[in-house]
Each structure stands twice: as structure tokens, then as C-alpha cells.
Amino acid sequence: MIGRLSLHARLLIVAALTGLAALAFAFFAIGHVLEGFVLRALDDKLDTQAAVLARAVEPDGRLDPTRVVELPDFETPGWGWRVRSAAGEWSGGSGVAGHQTPPMQGRGLRGGKGRGRDGRALYVRRLDIETATGPAEIVTAAPRRIIDSPLRAAMMPMLVSLGLLALGLAVATLIQLRYGLRPVRTLRDAVARVRKGDAQVLPVDQPIELRPLAEEVNALIAQNEAGLQHARRHVANLAHGLKTPLATLSLKLARDGSSAEARALVGELDQRIAHHLRRARAGAVASGQRARTNVREVVADLVDAVSRVHAGRQIEFEVSVDSDLVLAVDRQDLDEMLGNLFDNAARHARRCVRITAAVEEAMVRLVVDDDGAGMGEKDVVLAMTPGARLDESGVGYGFGLGIVRELAELYGGALWLLRSKLGGLSAQILLPR
Amino acid sequence: MRILLVEDDPALAEELVRALRAESFAVDHAANGEDGAHLGDTELYDAAVLDLGLPKMDGISVLHGWRGAGRSLPVLILTARDGWSEKVAGFKAGADDYVTKPFRVDEVVMRLRALVRRAAGHASAKIDCGRLVYDAQIGNFELDGLPLRLTAFEWRVLSVLVLRKESVVERPELLERVYEYDADVDSNSLEVIVGRLRRKIGAEMIETIRGRGYRLTCGVP
Q1: Claim: this prediction has a pTM higher than 0.90
Q2: Choosing among B82, B113, B124, which should be mutated to test the A contact, i.e. which has the most A CBs within 10 A?
């Protein structure tokens, strides 16, 4: 559980515990000092009375009442004294019913709790003296409230001040946490921006404690990117390495007048290579960081490329895409998806291909309409199968819609083939922003 | 018509050269990017077939070099990568078309013919010149609606002339577009070929412009 506790909570708990401990210590320490002040004046009176009583005790342990002088306070209700020895017990004032004061150890008086005859709480002082008949115990007492009420009166404002102090400390702690942990939050946001594709690396102008972390993360990003590039290069080299001999084989077979079966095998080999290359690329994409690709730029480049591919046919491209529309899709993958859709539309269009984009919450719907003959339902199903070619007589192109769907789904999107208002096919692809 | 083929794989290059020559093209082959760039810079070609993955200098750099130097010859890219990103990069570098490996020879040939035709300013695949019709898509000539049988050299000469019909094609240029780089050219051989062509399509259709070259004339009855 501690392992999952946030830094904020940890610091807050430590601050709260130390703060409370300090406040409790202050409360008891101040209370003790205050009590000392109050008791000192009271002790003086009680001890004086005890000393007077001690002088009135005869050597045989009896109290001589004529020698007892009571201080004025002892006429007040609650104040009282008691002398007890082997010779008897004497008391004055309001008297003392009992007390829990331990016997004197050596010289001096001791304070303690006691109880009056009316059951009220008393503060008592006890003095033990030696007589010929044994020890005599002299106890003087004052009502407990004499101490308690000034203490209570002093403690209340103290408690309030301590409470205010606690509140102040809490606010200070929160401010400190906010200010102190702000670089951590900033760093977290920076990591999120990198992941979202808004930034390439983390800023290194961090507090000294966080700078090594930012540098390490940047190194990791660079390593990841290099790995991705390496994987892509490797895939490209693999494509080149496999497809060049395949092209040779295909030409040789054609020249030798080989069977259609043999030539079909070359086609199948080509499709399998293409399929696995796509899979490898898709794997590289899944492990990479989120990309940000401007749709309009990609569309413009692809319209140019597709126009050249279909240069013999005067196809007009109508593009309606916002210039600042950005997709969370890798540029190469967007090229692949839109390239296939545009190519397909241009191949089947009579004169016009219309490309539009609309934002739908977290997604963007790109629609590619053509004014061609459109597709039947059976053809749509076939077209969605990866690697399938609708137009087997076509020169060398895979139909590509299966690839588009595969890629779109990899990004959590989708592809639909509908009937276009222009008369032909309306290929609609949904991709994340 | 003379084609520059830049392809590093010997087996594929051999097959392509053989196939293109079988279609009557004059073909020069460069086995790496540097040689290809040099040939494209210094020789006259109707089109180039350029592989992208080349040793010494990759295909895109070769293309950049040519376009940077103002060379406008049509370029057909051969690529193992069938991704649109590669195609876009190729087109941005100045390519005119591409073919993905593996391909069929007729596909390459058809695209080459179309590139050369468009580069010469012909929008339609059929080019008429009086009784003569050139089908630029399949590369055949017809005379009075009947197929014309031509040798490779005759086809090269006539295809150059028909693409530039009614214009003078200078003799040195015609020589360059008909003979391969390392061909042993006899000074009279072009006249011999033109003479044979005149017998096949009518002497009056190919005019000799003294001191300059030849012109295919279409207005002959």
C-alpha cells in the first residue's frame, strides 16, 4: 500500500504527524508551565498553614488548639486542614475527608489530590513530622477549582491559538506541496505531451533532482526511436532483398513461357511477403510513440502522386480538409491508408474524386467519394479481405482496401464502403485525432 | 527509343535488358547509382528505369541530381517497397511513375511508352500521321490500317520520328536515341535504316533535311 501512496500523500502525512506532535507537545508543555505558576502561589499559602499547624503539634503528638492560627483563606468554604497522629485527629476549615498524597520522602512538602467532606475535589499539601508517639500527618487543602478555573481560562485561548496555528501550518504545508511538487507535475505533463506526439523530447531545464530523470527518459526516447527506425529499415531492406529476386523469377518465368500456375505462385509469394511486411510494420507501430500527422499535407502529397499514377486519365480531385487537422496516426500508415483509398477511387472514377474530412469527437471521418460505377455487396466483402484483388486483370496493384481496414483497426478506427452521392463508392475511414 | 536502366541486381537487370530489347528499345544499363547518375547526365535518353535501392548512391538521390540539373527525362521508378510513402517520396523527388517488384515486363514497357508519349506532348495513346498510326500503348505501327512489321532499329527510328512528327529530328540526336552507349555505329547505318523505312512506309513521308536530319511528314496523300 505504501508503495502506491502518492508523493503528495506521503509528504502530507509526514507534515500532519510532525505538526500534530509538535502542537500536542506545545499544548502539554504550556499547560504544565501555567499550572506551575498557579500552584506556586497556592502552595505558599497551604505550606504556611501547614508550618503553623506543625508548630502547634505537641511533642506527644497532640494538637494544641490555642496555638492554631488559621490564615484568612481557610475561612472560605472548601479550604481546610487535618492533623492526624497516634494521639488523635484534628481538623479545621472545611476539613479534609481523604487524600492520595504519598508519604514524605525526606524533607519538604508534597502536593496531591484529595477530597473534601462534601465530596468536592481538593488540592492538598502534606507534611509529615515526627513526635514522641510516632509520625504526625499534617494535610492542608484548597478547592481544586482554584487551580482549575484559571487554568481553564488560560487554556481555552491557548487551544484556539494552537488550532489557528495548526490551520496555518496545514495551509503552509499545502502551499509547500503545491509549489514543491510542481516540477513533478510539469514533468508528468511533458511526458504526456511526448506520448501524445506534441513534443519530441522532455525539456531538460528541470530542477537538479529531476534533470537526470528527464535526461534518462530522453535517452530512452531516442533509443526507442532508433530501434523503430532500425526495424523499419530492416523491413524495407527485407522487402528489397526478397522482392528483387522475385521480380527476376517472375520475368524468367514469363520469358520461358512457364505455366500460369507457376506465375500464380510468384503472385502468391509476393502477397505473402507483403502481408508479413505489413505485420512487421504494424508491430513496429504498436510499440512506438503516438504520432501527429497533418492530414492536409498528406492528402496534397497523395493527390499529386495518385494523379501522376493515373496521369492518362483526367481525374479531378476535390479536396475539402482543414489545414490544421491533425491525426494521431503515423505518417507512413496514413500515406498507406489514404494512398490506397485515393488510388482505388481514381481508378474507378469517371471524372471526379471528392475528399472530405469531418471531426467526430475524438475521431476524424475521412470520406473518399468517386463518381464511378460503385461496388456490389459481394465485391465489398471480397475487397475487405486483406491481400485480395478485385480486378485480377489489373496491372500489378493489390486492391488494398483490406490493408486499409487492417491498419485503420490497428489505430482503433474503422473502414466502411458505402454508396456515394456522386454515384460511385464512398470509402469512409475513421481515425483517431 | 533509348532507355536507361539503373538496377544493381545482375539477374533482374539481365532479364529486364533482355525483355526491353525484345520490345525494340535501345537499353543502357548502369549497375549502381553513381554510374546511372553519370549516364543520365551525359547521354540522351527517352526515359529512365530507376531502382530505388542502389549501391553508392540511392535512387532518390540520383533523381534529385537529375532534376536539380534540369534534366527532364521521364523516370519510371522500380521499388521493392510498395508503400505510398515511398511512392510519394519518389514523386516528390521528380519521378513520373513507379512499378512495384515483382512486375510484369509488359507493365514496365507499357508505362515506359506512356511516359515517353506524354513527355513528347501527346495526350492520346494513338498518334496519327497521314496513313501511319502509332499505338503508343502497345507500341505498334499500322499503315493504312494494316500492321507494319519493323526491325528493332527501324522501330526505334520511326518511333522517335512519329513522336516528333512534322518537326526536324537532328541527325546526332536521332543517332543517340537509336544506338546503345557501347554500340559500334557505322556512319552510314542510319541512312540504311531510313532507306529501309522509306521503302516500307513511302519515301515521301521521311524527308531528309540537308545538313540537319530527318522529318516525318504527315500531309502526304
Answers
A1: no
A2: B82
